[in-house]
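$ run holo --ligand "coenzyme A" --emit tokens
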Amino acid sequence: MRKETKKTVEVLHTELVFPGDTNHYGTIFGGKILAMMDMTGALAAMQFCNEEAVTASFESVDFKKPLKEGDILEVRAKVIFTSNKSMVVKIDVYRIGKFHSRKDYGCGGYATFVAVDSNGEPRTIPQLKVTTKEEKRLWEIGKQIKQKATERASSSK
Ligand SMILES: CC(C)(COP(=O)(O)OP(=O)(O)OC[C@H]1O[C@@H](n2cnc3c(N)ncnc32)[C@H](O)[C@@H]1OP(=O)(O)O)[C@@H](O)C(=O)NCCC(=O)NCCS
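-- output --
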């Protein structure tokens, strides 16, 4: 395990929902949101470890609010847990106001990313520095997610 530790940095991605991203009710495709979450999560992971990273697993995502054509979506992602070669990233999606400061929670989830070299082989990463109460709380959540994902992955081999 690498000894180097560092703080997490939150990555933000903002996007306007276009007609091509919606179904016939005018609400956004779930798959489009998942793609945005995956991409923003990967960027948070890569920025943290300074390596390429691939998505190893995604936890379930519950869509809490209908997100519609013309909405502005903000995706926020940050590394909350690290292990030897992998990172758990918390990813949340909000609808933000066009003409006001209101922000509504749309959905959120967790994904595990693994740092890889140019041959796709896993690489060791710096470890996350957790100091605040909130960071420690998120670390515990991430630890459970990592454990669940590892168990699932080994039972499906
Ligand atoms: C993810 C991947 C690199 C892991 O490779 P591997 O040879 O199985 O890796 P290892 O067994 O050496 O494990 C390396 C790390 O990955 C973690 N890992 C592997 N599969 C995992 C999974 N499904 N979920 C969570 N973590 C996983 C291991 O727990 C280990 O973490 P740790 O060292 O931090 O404890 C490989 O399975 C892969 O390339 N998968 C495809 C990724 C992909 O194409 N994603 C979609 C597009 S980006």
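-- notes --
The chain has one domain: 5-155.
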